[in-house]
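Batch job 17 of 40 flagged for manual review because the log was empty.
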Amino acid sequence: MPVPVPVISPIALAELSRQRPIRLIDVRTPGEFAQLHAQGAVNVPLEQVDAKLVTGHDETLYLICRAGSRGHKACELLLAIDPQARVVNVDGGTLAWHAAGLPTIRARRRMSNERKGRLLALVLIIISILLSIFVHKGLIGLAGLVAAGIVFAGMTNAFGMGLIIGKMPWYRAKVSNGTPNEATGSESANKVSHGP
């Protein structure tokens, strides 16, 4: 039977962080993290969440994502490794943190992986149509497969190309001295904001 995942509101967590240092881990992709994240959060993508985050640490680990579901999943993963782990999911994620007017770090605008995946799909469709005209008619099947993938993504809200792009090595969190960096990309382009 799974251990229930404790939650905390962004406002309660911000209040707690004023009283003492907290460990806030953002489990989104480095690209998502770079676009907007809670001030003080450290990026460890969900695929890299493991026992090292809780082993040998007495303090509570707070996990945040975009809206709360990946943070919840990360908590479940860590609780499956160690049922005594002190992990808490931030209710509503970064969206709720930002909506509450709490300090966030916003980087220059970047294209999301989902948008990049859609552009890649469009380019593949165009290329396959051109190849079917000039090389071999059978290559039109590639356009059909990509189009079917886009329809599937629309029906299930699971866009595989965006996930694949997010797993590319250049989107991985940069790690120095065993600790993930707070942000990816140019720090000079980042700015602190307080809410919407």
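Reviewer: the log was empty due to a logging misconfiguration, but the result itself is present. The helical segments are 10-19, 30-35, 69-81, 93-99, 113-134, 140-156, 160-166. Unflagging and moving on to job 18.
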